[in-house]
Design goal:
By secondary structure, the chain is α+β, with helices and mostly antiparallel strands. It contains 13 helices and 28 strands. Helices cover about 30% and strands about 25% of the residues. The strands form seven sheets. The chain has a 15-stranded antiparallel sheet that branches. The protein has a three-stranded antiparallel sheet with strand order 26-27-28. Helix 4 crosses helix 13, helix 6 packs parallel to helix 8 and helix 12 packs antiparallel against helix 13. It starts with 7 loop residues before the first strand and ends in a 5-residue tail after the last helix.
Length: about 600
């Protein structure tokens, strides 16, 4: 049996991340980057596909856990009949090579501990050669080499193609395990002092969190979401991955399993706004710079997502040797949606640059020339159908949200030229484009009989993305069409008050079998729309309910199933935490704010 998705906590070093279960097992870790092959893949397979368990030997042990203050350092306290211990898991921020540190501290009595390290490179497929060397264990297979440094007073031995550890910790004692990766053709990396690394990492995270300038009633939730976004940032480039995992299902046992270890342009505007509002200008500037590098090139070559450094080729492959999370197959790496046509991303990219300019980030000389080229390309393509925001794998359609974001692109370009007329560009032509898009969407994308914007032209289906219409400024929140759309969506597209993306009944628009849970970011968008349409109390009530869906350490996956009370999809999900931040800030800064 797999642990529930929400039973995991996240640790990371701003270049990769690991998931640690309540049972003391690290079941997912890719080294050395987020998108590298996993050496622990039990999350989407079984224990034979790699994990690292460290826990008391007693079968009667019970654990509680939490992050150490405003940090990404995880403390798990185990209570046993013989005593109690604390296991502290973290990854020190690094320049080049990664380490995973597990510190065991005795709190009461004497506790027998055991560890099982089962390394399996290449997503759980390759069993390494393990040997003792220089007082440690070293595992090597192909390009990968991992060293495990164990306590000197314990017993370490090999069994069943794994490395076992047995030791006892008394009250007041402290010991540590350090797992270090390096390319196998290079010499062993310099050993770190685990206790000094713990102190430094604690100080680093607390200093970073203290920079947050939000001090409203939801500060604890805001800080945790900001830390999560920071943890999903690939520090060398500034790119932010959508999630650190692949193939956690939208429906247990289903086929809706995707690889999210890449950087989506769609996240750009909302991420920038969150970072800017919270006062993290450095991180916002790094993300903006990543965008500039990634989208550079021919406008018709713009992709919806890129690799951590802006890589364009992300071929999708299935891994048949993995059994999937709760039998959810296939397990995929790479993402074929990279080749889709999604016109809304042009609007999102241009909107993000406009947000950066408005917030006062340093002007980049070439940024406007890139935006100008994107708008000019969109002038001739916005009338075309596309796959839309939800990356459908069915036929292309005229999605209303895509058209609205084309309007956003023209609108923001007009605003830039009005403020900076010497920038260059045809403001009259772009104003005409903006007005034409607006007229067409209102005429073809709004169902007057039902009183709602629809998913696509001529369709009766609904789409949660239309909740963004007032947020992006396409129509004001007090427009009757906006109010009616919000009411219709609440009535027809919610499950137990939480928003779905679209209907999956009958023949779904995405062309895929099966179902999915409610989409958490869409539920935050609903709270935003309620706020913008003057229903502040309802917005706050929904927001506070959504906060209760976080797991015990404040993390959210992509989706939530109200029927089973479980989180679903890749975890933790940047988009969900971005949604949380946006609503918290809107409640704080709006009329009658906290």
């Amino acid at each position: 049996m797999h642990p529930r998705i929400e039973d995991y906590a996240l640790i990371g070093d701003l270049q990769t991340a690991a998931l640690v279960g309540r049972d003391g097992s690290i079941d997912w870790l890719c080294l050395p980057r987020f998108d590298s092959a996993a050496c622990f893949a039990a999350l989407v397979g079984g224990r034979d596909n790699g994990h690292w368990t460290l826990a008391p030997r007693s079968p009667k042990s019970r654990s509680t856990r939490g992050y150490r203050g405003d940090s990404l350092i995880l403390d798990t306290v185990w209570e046993t009949p013989e005593g109690s211990v604390k296991v502290t898991d973290f990854m020190p921020q690094r320049e080049r090579l990664p380490d995973v540190v597990r510190v065991v501290t005795g709190l009461r009595g004497r506790v027998e501990m055991h560890g099982v390290l089962r390394l399996r490179f290449d997503y759980g497929r390759v069993v390494p050669w393990v040997r003792a060397s220089e007082g440690s264990r070293v595992a090597i297979a192909g390009p990968d080499s991992v060293w495990l440094r164990t306590p000197a007073d314990g017993v370490t031995y090999g069994k069943d193609f794994s490395t076992r550890s047995e030791f006892t910790v008394a009250a007041g004692e402290r010991t540590a395990f350090v797992l270090s990766w390096h390319p196998s053709h290079e010499p062993r990396p310099e050993q770190i002092d685990p206790f000094a690394a713990l102190a430094d990492t604690t100080e680093d995270w607390h200093a970073w969190s203290a920079r947050c300038r939000y001090h409203g009633r939801y500060r604890a939730a805001v800080i945790r979401s900001l830390i999560t976004l920071k943890a999903l940032t690939y520090a060398p480039t500034g790119g932010i991955v959508a999630a650190p995992t692949t193939s956690l299902p939208e429906e247990p046992g289903g086929v809706r399993n995707w690889d999210y270890r890449y950087c989506w342009l769609r996240d750009a505007t909302l991420t920038l706004n969150s970072l800017l509002t919270a006062g993290y200008l450095e991180e916002a500037d790094a993300w903006r710079d990543w965008l500039l590098r990634a989208v550079a090139g021919a406008p018709d070559d713009l992709q919806i997502m890129y690799g951590l450094a802006g890589e364009r080729r992300l071929p999708e492959t299935e891994l048949p040797w993995l059994s999937g999370y709760e039998g959810s197959l296939p397990v995929r790496i790479g993402n074929a949606a990279v080749g889709q046509r999604q016109l809304d991303v042009y609007g999102e990219v241009i909107d993000s640059f406009h947000a950066a300019l408005t917030a006062g980030l340093p002007v980049k000389p070439h940024a406007w020339s890139i935006q100008r080229a994107l708008v000019e390309y969109l002038e001739s393509t916005w009338r075309d159908p596309d796959e839309g925001i939800w990356e459908i794998r069915g036929p292309r359609q005229h999605f209303v949200h895509s058209k609205v974001m084309a309007w956003v692109a023209a609108d923001r370009a007009v605003k830039v030229l009005k403020a900076h007329p010497r920038s260059g560009g045809d403001v009259d032509r772009w104003r005409a484009m903006r007005d034409e898009v607006h007229r067409e969407v209102c005429a073809r994308g709004y169902d007057t009989e039902r009183g709602t914007f629809t998913q696509s032209y001529g369709s009766t289906e609904l789409d949660a993305a239309t909740l963004l219409i007032p947020r992006v400024g396409f129509l004001p929140g007090n427009d009757p069409r906006v109010i009616s759309t919000v009411d219709t969506l609440r009535r027809e597209l919610t499950h137990d008050g939480l928003m779905r993306r679209y209907s999956t009944e009958g023949t779904p628009v995405d062309g895929l079998p099966g179902d999915e849970g409610t989409f958490l970011v869409c539920s935050f968008w609903l709270a935003d729309a309620l706020l913008l349409t003057g229903r502040r109390h309802q917005a706050r009530t929904l927001f506070e309910r959504l906060l209760t869906l976080r797991n015990d350490v404040g993390l959210l996956a992509e989706e939530y199933d109200p029927a089973s009370g479980r989180q679903l999809g890749n975890f933790p999900q940047a988009f969900s935490h971005i949604g949380l931040l946006g609503t918290a800030f809107a409640l704080h800064h709006g009329a009658g704010a906290d």
